[in-house]
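RECORD TYPE: inverse folding
INPUT: structure tokens
STRUCTURE:
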């Protein structure tokens, strides 16, 4: 199906003209098309140009929609560079997960491992670690090479890693004799490196929960833990302390001395001088990285930069600058940041000036847009294509449009999830006097007046009037009850004892929760607090005594539901902030898990030696029977079905208990 859709583009003179212009390095503007058509063209250009592409959208919502559309054409997820909130206020703990995702994607982009990268203006414009500093702070470990252990640990500490007894999360490392464990943001799992002297002998990934190695590797990349690392100052921590000292001296010489600011600077200086961690190091990003850099500096020289609706982008850039200005004004008044260090976002004009040496593709719904003076398009290609609306499950209206397309000598292609669903849709259309033919796999596009049904999926339909072709999706035509939208099982992830939260709506007042760093508390409420002239959501958690913790909603990943023994109403002892009871509890649990693991290994080793009966894989009848199930299975049900089938097809005896609550499917 995908190949036929790409062949359609090659028959359009506007597309082939734009493709040739881009190959010659000319800036190009394409106008007059819908959003799904834009994604269709971008997917085709990606296949033809064989060069990196950076797609810039106005906001996160537009980026997510573009990602969904591209997945329908490319059959894979395109990464979106996440944004992050600057930590300019004092905080006891800060989640670095978004920074680590950003660094990983930026590293992949600059090293050519990302063919297509989506960015929103917010994620692109934010100040970050310069590419040269990231390259200097990152390093590779390769088997057979020598690495003096003292130099290696010093380099890890400068990159923001913290030493611990056992590695459990990104940004940690542990050293036991000649064994070095590192959890780099560049990898999904931590790495265990075994040294013979200074020579790296063996290396492999391991599971942080079981601490058992599961895959050997020859080399790995080690990235910094966060975007703002004081140890990466050009002259190290000492150089940063010197710069802050000079900053304090300049503030004291001012006519109107800002005492709160001097207090903040002095407190931070003491932390750095004593080797303490400062979560608010973003305050000194301009000192640590004198060179202003954003994600735009990571775009490869040969990349194609795509501006999706540049008028909306320009408007988003103005709004972002205004929003950051108001936030910084309140922080300046509170004495939390120094005015000379408040350069955190790039301006639209500076970004456009940086595109002079790159090839740029503009997409706009309408012609006549004003383009940046620094990178105007050399060629303009107006096209006629539109995105089709949905029918809200009204098959009669959809059938009427298909009849209209037939009268206009349009070919109609309808994408269905499976062959069985195509057969059901064919029956429904025949009942409305429409002849539709099933073509799986799709070998040719429909002829004028013909309706073809094939396997495939797109979020929206498309119409190309000059090519006399309409492409509709099953989701547009049918409601969920008419043909079951049976979703594919999600990729299985490793099980965990943490019942992670996807949204604050998962919590109700009184629920017991567990904070990764502070332990067991009780959820009180969601509260809105005005910070930096902006109202933000915070999760209020009560701890033992009168202790209360406010966690920003953006750090929801640090909180999980309590799943320990007893009910919500049982007498569960809450932790006290500042005590070491929670750390002792975690250490005790790790030891107990290790002891239990040893017993289970012996038990399951004995079971493995017992022969069992292997059932045959699913037959076509079984699959057809499952497709006719009238209700959509949940993700958990699909996972259980797949697990049980895999057990039954294995010669090893099955050892599984399936438990379901009555009334919940």
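DESIGNED SEQUENCE:
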């Amino acid at each position: 199906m995908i190949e036929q859709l790409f062949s359609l583009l090659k028959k359009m003179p506007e597309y082939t003209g734009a493709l040739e212009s881009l190959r010659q390095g000319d800036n190009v503007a394409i106008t007059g098309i819908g959003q799904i058509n834009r994604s269709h063209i971008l997917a085709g250009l990606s296949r033809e140009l064989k060069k990196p592409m950076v797609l810039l959208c106005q906001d996160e919502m537009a980026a997510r929609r573009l990602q969904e559309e591209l997945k329908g054409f490319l059959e894979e997820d395109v990464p979106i560079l996440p944004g992050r909130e600057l930590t300019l206020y004092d905080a006891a703990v800060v989640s670095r997960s978004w920074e680590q995702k950003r660094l990983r994607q930026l590293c992949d982009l600059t090293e050519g491992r990302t063919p297509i990268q989506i960015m929103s203006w917010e994620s692109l414009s934010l100040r970050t670690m310069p590419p040269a500093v990231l390259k200097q702070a990152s390093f590779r470990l390769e088997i057979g090479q020598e690495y003096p252990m003292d130099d290696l640990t010093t380099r890890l500490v400068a990159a923001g890693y913290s030493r611990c007894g056992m590695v459990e999360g990104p940004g940690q490392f542990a050293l036991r004799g000649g064994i070095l464990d590192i959890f780099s943001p560049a990898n999904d799992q931590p790495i265990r490196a075994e040294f013979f002297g200074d020579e790296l002998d063996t290396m492999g990934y391991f599971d942080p929960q079981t601490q058992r190695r599961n895959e050997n590797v020859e080399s790995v990349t080690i990235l910094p833990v966060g975007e703002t690392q004081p140890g990466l100052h050009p002259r190290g921590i000492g150089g940063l302390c010197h710069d802050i000292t000079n900053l304090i001296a300049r503030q004291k010489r001012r006519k109107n001395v800002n005492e709160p600011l001097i207090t903040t600077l002095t407190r931070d200086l003491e932390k750095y001088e004593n080797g303490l961690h400062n979560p608010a190091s973003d305050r000194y990003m301009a000192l640590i990285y004198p060179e202003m850099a954003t994600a735009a500096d990571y775009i490869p020289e040969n990349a194609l930069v795509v501006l999706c609706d540049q008028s909306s982008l320009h408007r988003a850039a103005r709004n972002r600058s205004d929003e950051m200005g108001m936030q910084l004004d309140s922080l300046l008044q509170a004495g939390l940041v120094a005015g000379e260090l408040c350069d955190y976002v790039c301006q639209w004009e500076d970004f456009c000036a940086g595109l002079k040496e790159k090839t740029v593709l503009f997409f706009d719904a309408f012609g006549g847009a004003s383009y940046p003076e620094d990178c105007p398009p050399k060629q303009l290609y107006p096209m006629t294509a539109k995105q089709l609306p949905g029918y809200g499950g009204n098959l009669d209206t959809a059938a009427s449009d298909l009849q209209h397309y037939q009268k206009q000598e349009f070919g109609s292609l309808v994408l269905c999830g499976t062959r069985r669903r195509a057969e059901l849709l064919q029956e429904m259309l025949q009942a409305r006097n429409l002849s539709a033919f099933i073509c799986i796999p799709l070998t040719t596009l429909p002829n004028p007046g013909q309706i073809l049904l094939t396997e495939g999926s797109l979020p929206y339909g498309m119409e190309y009037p000059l090519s006399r072709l309409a492409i509709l999706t099953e989701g547009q035509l049918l409601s969920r009850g008419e043909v079951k939208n049976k979703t594919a099982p999600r990729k299985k992830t490793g099980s965990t004892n943490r019942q992670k939260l996807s949204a604050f709506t998962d919590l109700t007042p009184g629920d017991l929760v567990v904070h990764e760093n502070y332990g067991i508390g009780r959820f009180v409420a969601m509260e809105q607090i005005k910070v930096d002239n902006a109202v933000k959501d915070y999760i209020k958690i009560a701890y033992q005594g009168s202790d209360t913790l406010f966690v920003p909603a953006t750090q929801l990943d640090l909180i999980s539901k309590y799943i320990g023994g007893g009910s919500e109403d049982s007498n569960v002892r809450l932790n006290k902030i500042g005590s070491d009871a929670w750390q002792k509890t975690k250490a005790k649990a790790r030891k107990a898990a290790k002891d239990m693991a040893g017993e289970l290994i012996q038990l399951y080793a004995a079971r493995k030696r017992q022969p069992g009966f292997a059932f045959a894989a699913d037959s076509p009848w079984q699959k057809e029977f499952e497709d006719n199930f009238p209700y959509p299975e949940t993700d958990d049900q699909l996972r259980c079905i797949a697990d049980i089938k895999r057990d039954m097809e294995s010669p090893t005896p099955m050892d599984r208990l399936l438990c379901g609550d009555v009334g919940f499917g």
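NOTES: DSSP finds 19 helices and 27 strands in the chain.
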